Give the backbone structure.
Amino acid sequence: MSSPSSIILAIARDEWRYWRRSSLAQTVFVIALALAAASVWVTQASMAHTTEQRQHMQSESKTAFEDQPDRHPHRMVHYGHYLFRAPPPLAALDPGIDGFTGNAIFLEGHRQNGATFADQKQSSGLTWLGTLTPAFVMQLLTPLLLIILGFGVMTREREAGTLDFLKVQGVSPLVLIGGKGIALMGAGLVVLMPLIIGGLVTLAQGAAVLPVAMFLLSYLLYLAVWCAIVLWVSTLASTNSTSFSGLIAIWVLLCLVVPRIASNSASVLEASPGKLETDFAVLKKLREMGDGHNASDPAFKALKDNLLAQYDVDSVKQLPINFRGIVAQKSEADLTKVLTEFAEQSMAQQQAQALIARSFGWLSPMIAIQNASMKLAGTDLENYQRFMREAEAVRFDFVQSLNKLHAEGMTLEQDANKYQSAAAKKAATVSADNWQILEDFHFTPLSAPQRVANSVMALVQLFFAGAVLLVCIVIAGRRV
Amino acid sequence: MSEVVILASNLCVDVRAKKILKNVSFSARRGEVLALLGGNGAGKSTTIKTFLGLMKPTSGSVELDGVNVHNDPAVVRQKVAYLPESVMLYGHLTAVENIEYFLSLSGKPAAESDIANALKRVALQESAWHSPLGGYSKGMRQKTAIALALLREAPILFLDEPTSGLDPVAIDEFNRLVSQLASQGATILMVTHDVYGACHVANRIGLLRDGEIVGMFDAPENGNIDSETVHTAFAQGALK
């Protein structure tokens, strides 16, 4: 008698032989490989272009700012500056929420702008193929192809009567299921090859080994879970048609319905105020703080009194610094505190919603792989919020640097009389040499160990699904 | 005659509360061919499936070589070759590939020459050996399955309507093969409608009607069972 392992391999080889001779299976393989390879290639090329473009635009934006002529510093505060987020290497395989959140941010005084230039907002319906990312293909389409390929692995034997014949040859149902499972996993590995090659390319582009390895491993695990689902249903079903319709229903449920329920549940359980509501609340709070453009605003009386006492003078005109610039600095600091408070509240709500949605990963392997994939790629919500915080720090530094110039680069009199004449306007400017205040900005996602640590929960969810399915398969196999 | 190899003792099988086999008892000794004759629904295939461990007895027992089939099905199946009524081989594989595959699963791989000899022995035309079974006639598939059963060299054979779909020449060849295997020591349980074929090869014939053995005929020394006697009994049973 052959050992169970050699029988399992013989069954797996025969299943592959069946697929090689089946035109349906060949078509499925060609489609799966073509989709995976095309999505990897197109997204890699697109990301390489985007990275280059963003680096170029970042440099252009800095040059444009520094090339401004002699000006009043507050005009430069409103002239503003752009920050661009270069995508991390693994974004070529999973752009994550980048395509929806935008990749650039306009920095200016008194405002915390959101990210803009989201790819999804720029694309028309005709370019939907541009969003056919490797992650999308692997998460949504590959399970469908595995279903088409494998729905009949067990029911075919049952319908043809070969199941009983195999049993009489001494092949136990569990060994048969094992062989079919190995064959299906082999098919999953073949479809995963373009992603593996894409992963190796990201390594060459500077991605860390650990997250890339974990990224590929998580997709292998995800496809293993789908192979187990296909195997389980095919073992339980009595006919090919029952197996196919059951698997399609499960795919719709796990890949379309549960993710929708997850996002809806998150918005219901952790309701966040709308943009209009938030904008009004921010505005109300800012109005209580005084207008930073008006140095005579009573809100700045304490600041004025303190300065007068500090410099031992009677009026702001006698101060050695421009009081308007000091007000602008104080106002920007206060305003930033309020804006940051609202931004942090909003980000905490987003995190809470994401946490609720992620908990549905216990039910849907697709939600689990989405989270693991984005976290490992550095394209998840946490990395987006990290970019927003880093951008805000840059904005505050750059605006306050200009406000400092406003305070120290001219007198209050020059500043107050700037609209009197052309000469007065000229006097109320600072030299263009002062615009060299922007530091090079390079956004770095979370470190590799942090990204791996953040993905652990999603990976545990995938392992859990795999373990549950394994038990289900063994129970179903014993009843065959 | 030597020891009992195939033994059914008070075998009862119920399927969804319907009694398919009712207290069936019979035995076959080594080198013996036992044929069970019966009409549709008499319980012939159920008897074989119970011996193969594919169905469980409600009461009673089935033993092969002294081992209860349901206590140790894996060990018992090593000794068994099975030829089903409708051949359960793979349509995407050729005759040679089917035989190679099933033999590898049962741990008894055969050389190409042995496979060729077996296929010649069952008179499957050589031009068809490397064509997918999907394009075979029922008789050609049956011949492939017989070749597989021969190559398994199993000491116990279960044949379910083995000559169904075969042409007269192939039936004669098959009956000759069965007799030859039995003379070499194989014990064979065959269920069939074919009274004349059964009388030609069997040492004993049991008549099965509505799940009960209603008659048993033994072949005389160096002779065949009288087909007219069996046919009359079979026809009477069928009319009841």
